[in-house]
Specification:
Blueprint: H1 3-11, E1 21-23, E2 46-48, E3 68-70, H2 81-86, E4 92-94, H3 103-106, E5 117-119, H4 131-138, E6 144-145, H5 160-250
C-alpha cells in the first residue's frame, strides 16, 4: 500500500486537523520521499514512518506541533537540516537503522533546541571511537542518546512503545487483582451459602416441630373423644341396669 492511500485510511473520516498521532509504518514510499502528508496536519504531535523506504525527509511539511518523529529502518543518509526548519519543536527523534555514517550528518540537529532524545541504533556512526561522548558534545541539548543518558542511566520513556508497555502492565496488574479479589470473595460466598443452608434446615426443623405438635394435639383430641364415648356408653349401660332392676321390683 502506498503512503497516500495509507494516510487516507488512517484518517478514518477525520479531517487532518483532528489528527494528533499518525502511524504509517511499513507502507510504500514512492521515490523514497514522504507523500500525502500536508501542512493541514497542524495538530500532529507524533509521526511514525518506520520501514517505508525513505531516502530523504525533504518533502516533510511544516509541522510546528510535532514532538516525536520515528524514521527508523529507512535509507536516510543526510539532509537532516530540513527537520529544524519543518519541525522546530521536536523532542524525540529516532533515526536507528538508517545510513548515517559520520557526525557531520547529525550536526544540523543542533538547531533543534528542544531535542531531548536521539536514537541512532544500527547506524554506522555508532562504530566511531568515543561515539557517545562526541554526540553529547555536538548536541548539548540532548538528555538521552540511544535510550541512555550521559551516566548510562536508561530513559524511562525513550520511545512510544515504552508507554504501551506500561499500559499493558497496568492492565495485567488490574486483571490479577480482580482475580485475587474473586478468590478472596469465594470463601465468604461459601460461608453465606452455609448460613443459608443452616437457616433452611432450621426452618425445616421448626416445621417438623410444628407438625409434631399438631399430631400430638390431634392424638389428645382423639383420646378425649374416645374417653367421652366410653363415659357415655357406661352411663347408658348403668341406666339400662337401673331400668331393668326397677321393672323387677314392680313385679
Amino acid at each position: 500500500m502506498d503512503m497516500k492511500k495509507r494516510i487516507h485510511l488512517e484518517l478514518r473520516n477525520r479531517t487532518p486537523s483532528d489528527v494528533k498521532e499518525l502511524v504509517l509504518d511499513n507502507c510504500r514510499s514512492n521515490d523514497g520521499k514522504i507523500e500525502g502528508l500536508t501542512e493541514d496536519f497542524k495538530e500532529l504531535e507524533f509521526l511514525s514512518t518506520i520501514n517505508v523506504g525513505l531516502t530523504s525527509v525533504a518533502n516533510l511539511p511544516k509541522l510546528n506541533k510535532l514532538k516525536k518523529l520515528e524514521l527508523s529502518d529507512n535509507r536516510i543518509s543526510g539532509g537532516l537540516e530540513v527537520l529544524a526548519e519543518k519541525c522546530p519543536n521536536l523532542t524525540h527523534l529516532n533515526l536507528s537503522g538508517n545510513k548515517i555514517k559520520d557526525l557531520s550528518t547529525i550536526e544540523p540537529l543542533k538547531k533543534l533546541e528542544s531535542l531531548k532524545s536521539l536514537d541512532l541504533f544500527n547506524c554506522e556512526v555508532t562504530n566511531l571511537n568515543d561515539y557517545r561522548e562526541n554526540v553529547f558534545k555536538l548536541l548539548p541539548q540532548l538528555t538521552y542518546l540511544d535510550g541512555y543518558d550521559k551516566e548510562d542511566k536508561e530513559a524511562p520513556d525513550s520511545d512510544a512503545e515504552a508507554y504501551v508497555g506500561l499500559d499493558d502492565d497496568d492492565d495485567e496488574d488490574d486483571e490479577v487483582e480482580e482475580e485475587e479479589g474473586d478468590e478472596d470473595a469465594a470463601p465468604e460466598d461459601e460461608d453465606e451459602e452455609g448460613e443459608d443452608e443452616d437457616e433452611e434446615e432450621g426452618e425445616e426443623e421448626e416445621e417438623e416441630d410444628i407438625s409434631g405438635e399438631e399430631e400430638e394435639e390431634e392424638d389428645l383430641n382423639d383420646g378425649e373423644v374416645e374417653e367421652e364415648e366410653d363415659y357415655e356408653e357406661e352411663r347408658g349401660q348403668k341406666r339400662k341396669r337401673e331400668w331393668d332392676e326397677g321393672e323387677e321390683d314392680d313385679d
